[in-house]
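Handout, page 2. Input:
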Amino acid sequence: MSRAEDIFQKLIYFGEDALDDYIINRQAEELFLDFKQATPGIGKNVTSLPRDDRKNLAKCISGFGNSEGGVIIWGVECSRDIEIGDVAKAKIKVKNVHRFLSWLENAISGCTIPSHNKVRNHIISIDENGDGYIATYIPKAEVSPLMSMVGNSIYIRSGSNNVPAPYSVIAGMFGRRPQPNIDLIISEKKIEVLENINENQIYLPEKEKEKNKKPEKYVRISFAFHVSNSSSVIARELYLSCTTEHAGGEYNKVRFSNYAQVDEIHGMSNQLNLITRPELRLPPRGTFKFANVEIILTPYITDDFLFDGIIGAAEAAPRDFRIYVNKNTLRAYVAKILRGEDDETLWQNEFFNDFFRGDF
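Output:
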């Protein structure tokens, strides 16, 4: 999942609470996020998106579409901060939000050449008077560059602004073939408490062996790495590289298994380097399973847990991901699971939402 789509999904899930959070924390406009106010005082005789709103929409579709995608939130006022730029100041509701949504939908196809047919809108919230807030998600365009029909300019996203693209950038866009877009998918998630009956999973410190007569329990976190091709072109030479610098201490492990149709490039003992064979091609909208991952965690946490990785394909932008948990948090997390507090769903949410970071 891209950063722009992550923002859009957050707005869908949390609704107006997400806007309140942006205002409380003085969220700044940035590479993937823009705040806009709808034109006020629109009369009943107006039947299409007002000129200023259309201009803003066209520039954003061109800028975000020619870059890495982004989200417009309609209904947030900004104020200028000297150090970080425009920040969310207050909510200003869009009048008759359903009407405004209809205008947006009708205007999108005419905002750029070529048109961007993957733009999506979502009503964040609506009150009893029909007023509310809207999010417009603009993914990276598969066919670029997109030229705005307002001003006939080609924009790219630079910081928090949509700026006219320099000639060299435009020349590169015209000369570039469509590229695959690779995303990471985490599936088959499972967290279990198991007994180390024969010590074939973990090896305890000698002093702990003397204290414990019962088999030691441990936590096993397992999941699978998949890669998806969300573009309209074939992806080749897909790769996955992982490094486990710290596994929480010497009594904890990270294992990989079940990787087929790939070649393993041997590196250091704490690395996994995989690349698909030349004959393997991933079609548009296709998915491919790289490997299963198994993390063994014991109560003996003496170090932080750090797991870094990257996926990608030939001529595609790579995607980074990371699992990081400091030793105190990890120790408390494992202890909670071993005590049987909560259930697997909550354990999964904490691990994959709080500790896992990346484009997936």
